């Protein structure tokens, strides 16, 4: 158990408007995640109040399994590094919950031509006309693996109800110094787009005495073309009978980021604040039952 505050807390929380002054190269972060997520299987369970968080990390899927999955999804190919057995799950003792996994995320990727994405691909091809791989990238599907996945609701007899809401996650509360009872991060997939960018999906969670906060981030950088970030934030306060889920899409063409230092392009935590906000959707995830909590609104352990 650790207490995290200041700059490190900003990174974990994924706040797009609060950044640190140094840049962490995506390559190093990706390598670190691969070492911990890709080549050493592990499973962590953390119980708090009526909830249990499970973070399961396994090896990269074998080629034959990836090919079989791609065929089932009717897609020409899937990400180079696909962690099909990696899962981050939040489950209530009554059986319902929400989980985040790569397979369900990839089901939200278009396997048909899309005019916006194809135009982007064509622009990328023109900028890389001399590359021997450039022609291989243009496929009749979304080769960037862009997904608007927001998690998979679980439960049989009891289900979480989702509805639109005007209520927002209180980021000021998340900036406050509070004891971190549990933290973990799970990589779901990554692809280097033929060495001309990156497409990556990961999810992380931190649990405090009075709440938990989750960030799933899809990060896309197509060199010379664009940068896109799809964020799903999930927040729950002990004692409340609902979670808040916010989904945002930020995107800018590289030509629109002329005043942004190029080294920041590799770090989603740094570049997010410069991208244009394209969409925000806020949802209330109503729980079937109230959480168990103490009089001072803290989770009972």
Keywords summarizing the entry:
alpha+beta; 8 helices; 15 strands
Q: Your description of this structure?
A:
The chain contains 8 helices and 15 strands. It is of the alpha+beta class. It has an 8-stranded antiparallel β-sheet, with helices on one face. A 5-stranded antiparallel β-sheet has the order 2-3-5-6-7. Strands 1-9 form a two-stranded antiparallel ribbon. A hairpin with a 3-residue loop joins β12 and β13. The N terminus is likely disordered.
Quick synopsis:
This protein has 301 residues and is α+β, with helices and mostly antiparallel strands.
Tell me the series of helices and strands, N- to C-terminal. EHHEEHEEEHHHEEHEEEEEEHE
Secondary-structure class: alpha+beta
* Form type: globular
The major sheet is characterized as:
8 strands, antiparallel
Mean pLDDT metric: 81
Enumerate how many helices there are, as a single number. 8
Helix content: 10-25%
- As laid out across the biggest beta sheet, the strand order is 4-10-11-12-13-14-15-8
Strand content: 35-45%
- Give the uncertain stretches in residue-range form: 1-13, 15-38, 115-119, 291-295
User: What's the N-to-C terminus distance?
Assistant: 15 Å
**In total, how many beta strands?**
15
Cα-based radius of gyration, to the nearest Å: 19 Å
Fold blueprint:
Layout: E1 2-4, H1 6-13, H2 26-38, E2 42-48, E3 51-57, H3 63-72, E4 81-82, E5 87-92, E6 97-101, H4 102-106, H5 115-127, H6 134-137, E7 152-154, E8 161-164, H7 171-175, E9 178-180, E10 182-191, E11 197-207, E12 211-222, E13 226-237, E14 242-253, H8 268-271, E15 276-286
Antiparallel strand pairs: 1-9, 2-3, 3-5, 4-10, 5-6, 6-7, 8-15, 10-11, 11-12, 12-13, 13-14, 14-15
């Amino acid at each position: 158990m650790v207490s995290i505050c200041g700059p490190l807390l900003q990174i974990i929380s994924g706040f797009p408007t609060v950044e640190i002054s140094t840049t962490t190269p995506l390559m190093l972060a990706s390598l670190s995640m691969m070492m911990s997520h890709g080549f050493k299987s592990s499973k962590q369970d953390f119980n708090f109040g009526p909830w249990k968080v499970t973070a399961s990390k396994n090896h990269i899927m074998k080629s034959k399994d990836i090919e079989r999955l791609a065929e089932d999804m009717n897609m020409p190919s899937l990400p180079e590094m696909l962690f099909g057995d990696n899962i981050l799950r939040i489950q209530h003792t009554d059986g319902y919950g929400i989980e985040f996994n790569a397979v369900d995320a990839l089901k939200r990727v278009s396997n048909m031509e899309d005019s916006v994405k194809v135009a982007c691909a064509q622009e990328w091809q023109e900028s890389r006309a001399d590359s021997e791989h450039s022609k291989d990238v243009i496929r009749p599907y979304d080769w960037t693996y862009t997904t608007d996945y927001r998690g998979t609701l679980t439960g049989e007899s009891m289900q979480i109800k989702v509805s639109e809401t005007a209520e927002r996650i209180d980021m000021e509360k998340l900036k406050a110094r509070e004891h971190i009872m549990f933290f973990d991060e799970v990589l779901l997939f990554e692809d280097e787009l033929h060495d001309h960018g990156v497409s990556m999906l990961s999810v992380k969670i931190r649990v405090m005495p009075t709440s938990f906060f989750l960030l799933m981030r899809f990060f896309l950088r197509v060199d010379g073309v664009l940068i896109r970030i799809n964020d799903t934030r999930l927040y729950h306060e002990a004692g409340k009978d609902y979670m808040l889920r916010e989904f945002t899409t930020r995107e800018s063409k590289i030509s629109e980021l002329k005043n942004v230092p190029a080294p920041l392009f590799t770090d989603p935590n740094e570049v997010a604040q410069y991208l244009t906000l394209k969409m925000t959707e806020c949802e209330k995830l109503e729980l079937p039952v109230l959480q168990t909590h103490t009089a001072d609104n803290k989770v009972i352990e």
